[in-house]
TrEMBL record:
It comes from Hydrocarboniphaga effusa AP103. The lineage of its organism: Bacteria, Pseudomonadati, Pseudomonadota, Gammaproteobacteria, Nevskiales. GO terms for biological process: diaminopimelate biosynthetic process; lysine biosynthetic process via diaminopimelate. Homotetramer; dimer of dimers. CDD domains: DHDPS (cd00950). The record marks T44, Y107 as: Part of a proton relay during catalysis. Its EC number is 4.3.3.7. One of its GO terms (cellular component) is cytosol. This is 4-hydroxy-tetrahydrodipicolinate synthase.
Length: 293
């Protein structure tokens, strides 16, 4: 089981929108040096919605090659078409991903039975550990705990990223009596510390993009049950947890990394660079976390 701080890695881009692979390599090295426990490549934060299939797989392949088995790499392979999700997941398997993260099908809003059959079909089709991903604020569909409980019994489905940001949902999932090998990850940085203290295994994090060492330390303290230390560390990140979402993700986090000198400012339409009126707010959050002087 993968535990701790799993960064939902951005995909760096040049001003013309092309993928900046040199910056991607540098980010991977930085994350490993800073203690990030695993990398999620080409998830929502990695702009999966606007990378074409060839780019998508190449970014995953490049991250895997650069990591060179030092930490796990999870590939984002979700789609609102089951056939497409199978194809992306198989491609990720072929380039050496350790697992795949699959968002619930978006826009077509399947019922709970449709979600169950979607994930079961993928698990039956590809021999790669699968992590479910529930983020109703983006997809328009909420995968309920009962459906998670059913899917946790399917061979090959090994975990869930729950991004509803609701501690009531966290408690409901923990009350299901899921298999001990089934990993539960927060997908909401603001509630990640409390989720881990309650029994989750880690955080698939946007904040970790800019404060990887501190996010790792928060997860370690929370996993050890040291609530006071975890809260003290997490307090430094509180502004980032909120202000990296003042505009749609990954707009603020990409600007933050650009401000830190780690990536160019590129982002793809229909997303646009951060509004200048938001600069000072994000800068203040970066300084509070100690990652910008």
């Amino acid at each position: 089981m993968i535990k701790g701080s799993l960064v939902a890695l951005i995909t760096p881009m040049s001003a013309d929108g092309s993928v900046d692979y040199a910056s991607l390599d540098a980010l991977v090295e930085w994350h490993i040096a800073e203690g990030t426990d695993a990398i999620v490549a080409v998830g929502t934060t990695g702009e999966s919605a606007t990378l074409d299939v060839e780019e998508h797989i190449e970014v995953v392949r490049r991250v895997i090659a650069k990591v060179a088995k030092r930490i796990p790499v999870i590939a984002g392979t979700g789609a609102n078409s089951t056939v497409e999700a199978i194809e992306l997941t198989e491609a990720a398997r072929k380039v050496g991903a350790d697992a795949a993260l699959l968002v619930t099908p978006y826009y077509n809003k399947p019922p709970q039975e449709g979600l169950y059959r979607h994930y079961r079909r993928i698990a039956e089709s590809v021999e790669l550990p699968l992590i479910l991903y529930n983020v109703p604020g983006r997809t328009g569909v909420d995968m309920l705990p009962a459906t998670v409980g059913r899917l946790a019994q399917v061979p090959g489905i090994v975990g869930l990223k729950e991004a509803k940001g609701d501690l009531g949902r966290v408690r409901d999932l923990l009350a299901l009596g899921l298999p001990e090998s089934f990993a539960l990850y927060s997908g909401d940085d603001a509630t990640a510390r409390e989720s881990i203290l309650l029994g989750f295994h880690g955080d698939i994090s946007v904040t970790a993009n800019v404060a990887p060492k501190l996010m790792h330390e928060v997860c370690v303290a929370a996993a050890a049950g040291d609530a006071a230390k975890a809260a003290q560390l997490d307090e430094k990140l509180a502004l980032l947890h909120s202000d990296l979402f003042i505009e749609p993700n990954p707009i603020p986090v990409k600007w933050a990394l650009h401000r830190m000198g780690r990536i160019p400012e590129g982002i793809r339409l229909p997303l646009v660079p951060l509004e200048s009126s938001s600069y000072s707010r994000v800068e203040t959050a970066l300084r509070a976390a100690g990652v910008l002087s």
